[in-house]
Task: structure prediction
Amino acid sequence: MKKLFLTLLVSLGFISSLSAQELDFIAVATQGKFNENSLGVKALSDEEMSKVVGRLYQIGGHVITPTLVSKYYIVEKSDLNYDSRLIQEATSKLHYGEALAYVKRYYQSQVEWTWLAGYNLYTKEFREIPFSASMQSFQFIDSQYKYSHY
Result:
C-alpha cells in the first residue's frame, strides 16, 4: 500500500512540478522526515542503480483464522529481473487498472501456498489469476521470494 501511495504521490509530484527545478524524492517518500541532504543519504550513480535488486512490498493482508493468513505483495519489473519475456507474460494476464501481486498464504507462520493475483488500483480488490502456477513469471518470482522474510 505504501508503494502504491508513493507511486501516486510521485506521479502527482511530477505533474505539479513540471515547471519546478528539482523534486526531492526522499523528502516526498518520507513525508519530509528526511531529504537528499540528510546524514546517511547517498545518491546512487547509474552503475550503482543498475545493481539494485527488487524486493517485495506488502500491500495488503487477510486474516482468515488466527493461524491462517494471506499476505499480498506488489510485483515490480525489477522482481522479474527486467526480463521482457516474463514481464509480458505476467502483464498479459492483468485486467485494465490492475497491478501484478504475489500472494503468500501462511498456516501457523509457515508458507503453505503461493499464487499470483491482479490488484485493482482503483477498487483496491484482488483477483486471483487462474493457473498462475504454470506461468514462468510466477515460477521465477516464487523461486526468489517464497521463503524470504518479507
Remarks:
- The radius of gyration is 17 Å.
- Confidence is low (pLDDT under 50) at residues 17-21.
